[in-house]
Amino acid sequence: MIDQFNRDINYLRVSVTDRCNLRCVYCLPEFSKDFIDESKLLTIDEYFRLIRILGNLGIKKVRITGGEPLVRRGIPGLIKSINNLENIEETAMTTNGILLEKYLDELAENGLSSLNISLDILDEKKYNYITRGGELEKVVRSIEKAIEYKIKIKLNSVIIDDFNKNDIKSLVDFAVDKNIDIRFIELMPIGCGQNLKGVSNEEILEIISKDRKTAEMNSSGTISGPAAYHKIEGTNTRIGFISPLSSCFCETCNRIRITSEGKLKQCLYYDSKLDLMKMLRTETSDKKLMEEIKNEIYFKNKQHNFTGSPEDKEKEKEKNTMSVIGG
């Protein structure tokens, strides 16, 4: 699908639930977050129908996200169904890794292509604090088991100033030891993230460069996304930087999202407009769905406005947490 700015939209991120078994400080409040009732989420069959339609429209990669996708029943089966669609080239998942070990055998058998695993720190006490109850050991075991299955793995790390900035080196060392990639994602000013101070990826690279020699890599031109990669010399590990604020990548954005509430999102910043759930539950035909989706995607915004005026932000900005939108 080509939008009005001639971008090829071929990457779909699907949030299958807003629920999570952790409450990371930059994502969810510690208390009083009411999760969406399951009746107000798309069913697994509805997700599959939309993914099939979008595959026919040009989507080539699908990433399952949440919340935490593995708290929802039926996800391994959904992965299998997606993997059987002829137009989908890659089926991926983003997870915190806590439940991953339990489902990994089935996910691998069903054709999961790659995993992004959230890991912000390797100190057990600090990990428990930042996730409000997470067990680091479970995540590490999941990573090691996924490596045995030869599933492509990337670590996703969010660095918060005055909390885990001093742990950047140990995260990179861990990635090198496991022979996997690590990506540093700028803290997004959405939901709980608005109240925290992040660390720029430029500063993170400076910290890494004190101990490791790195070389910037050319863009691979794949459908995977916006990360700028540096190779750590003498290793197979790449360090990725996703910098939507300090280094806007909107010009080449190739993605859309389906939220856990069944809305189609053109952009992480802007509020959702097209209500896919309503269309699905009023017996809308595949043809009509395709027309509405194509029209919505064609008018995808040129770029986000995270750095715009407070007045504009109040009018335009997505009000949901990242767990609803899909991390």
Helices and strands in order:
Layout: E1 11-15, H1 44-57, E2 61-65, H2 75-83, E3 90-95, H3 100-109, E4 114-118, H4 124-131, H5 136-148, E5 152-157, H6 168-178, E6 181-185, H7 201-209, E7 214-216, E8 228-232, E9 238-242, E10 255-258, E11 263-265, E12 274-275, H8 276-280, H9 286-298, H10 310-316, H11 322-325
Parallel strand pairs: 1-2, 1-10, 2-3, 3-4, 4-5, 5-6, 6-9
Antiparallel strand pairs: 7-8, 8-9, 10-11, 11-12
Helix pairs in contact: 1-2, 2-3, 3-5
- Kindly state the number of beta strands: 12
> Span from first to last CA?
23 Å
- Give the CATH topology of one domain: TIM Barrel
State the name of the first-level CATH class of one domain: Alpha Beta
**Which architecture of one domain does the CATH hierarchy give at level 2?**
Alpha-Beta Barrel
Question: Can you give me a brief rundown of this structure?
Answer:
This protein is α/β, with parallel strands linked by helices and 327 residues long. The chain has helices at residues 44-57, 75-83, 100-109, 124-131, 136-148, 168-178, 201-209, 276-280, 286-298, 310-316, 322-325; strands at 11-15, 61-65, 90-95, 114-118, 152-157, 181-185, 214-216, 228-232, 238-242, 255-258, 263-265, 274-275. The chain has a domain at 11-155 and 252-325: TIM Barrel, CATH 3.20.20.70.
